[in-house]
Amino acid sequence: MTTKIIVSAVAAALVISAAAYAHNGATGVVKERMDAMSTLGKATKSLTEIMRGDVSYDAEVVRKNAAQIQKHAGNSMTKLFPEDSLMKPSEARPTIWANWEEFEVLAMRLETLAVGLAASADNGLMASGGAPASGMMGTDSMTSSGGMTSSGTMMAGSMTTESGTLPDAAELASMPTDGVFNMLAQTCASCHTQFRSEKN
User: Fold this and answer.
1) What are phi and psi of 58, to 5 degrees?
2) Are 37 and 173 in contact (CB under 8 A)?
C-alpha cells in the first residue's frame, strides 16, 4: 500500500470527523477543547492536501501546521479533559477517564510526532524522492498490518519501532515527511476511535 493511499484512508476520515464538531451551546472547557480540536482538524486538512499531492509541497506550510498541532497536543490537550467533563455538546466518551493513561500516551505521542513532522519538513515526500531514514524501507513495501515487515523492521509509515516504541527525534527528523504524517494521522485516528463518541 502506498503512502498516498494510507494518507487518503486515514487522514481523510480524520479530517471529515474533525470538521463535524458542532460548537452550538458549548461553554467553558468543553468549548475550549472543541475549539482546539477544530484547529487540529484544519491543520490536518491542510497537511492531508499536501501529502496527497492536491497542492504543491511547501515545507514552510508543513512546519506551520505542525506547530499548530504541537501547540494543542501533549499537556495542552490533556488539561482540556478534566474528569467527567461531559456537558453537552461534548463528544468525549467516559472511557477517557477510565483509560486515562492511554489517552495521555496518545496526547504525548501526538506532540512528539508534531515536533518530528516539523523537523522532517525539508525532507519532502517519499513519492517525490524524499529519502527514507537509514534502515527504513519504502512505503510501497508496506504490509496491511500496520506497516511492519515479516521481520518486524520499522517502515516509514508505521507508528512504532520493533521494540514497540515511537521513533526518537533524530529518526523522525530523518524520515520522509509523509511517513511522519502517517504516524501522526494514525495517532489521531486511534484517539478518536477510543475516546470520541460518534455523532448521531
Assistant:
1) -140, 110
2) no
DSSP one-letter code for 166: P
Q: Give the separation between CA 149 and CA 138, rounded to whole angstroms.
A: 11
DSSP 127: G
Give me the chain's average pLDDT, please: 78
pLDDT per residue as tens digits for the range 146-173: 332 222 233 344 555 544 578 988 999 9
What was the pLDDT predicted at 198?
75
Q: What is the pTM of this model?
A: 0.76
Give residue for cell 461553554.
Answer: 27
| Biggest CA-to-CA distance, the chain | 51
- H-type helices in 20-99, by residue range? 28-51, 59-71, 74-78, 95-98
For residue range 47-78, what is the model confidence (pLDDT) as tens digits? 999 999 999 999 999 999 999 999 999 999 99
Query: What share of residues in the chain are helix, strand, coil (percent, to 5)?
Result: 60, 5, 40
Chain center to CA of 99: 19
Closest of 15, 24, 115 to residue 69, by C-alpha: 115
Cβ(116)–Cβ(172) under 8 Å?
yes
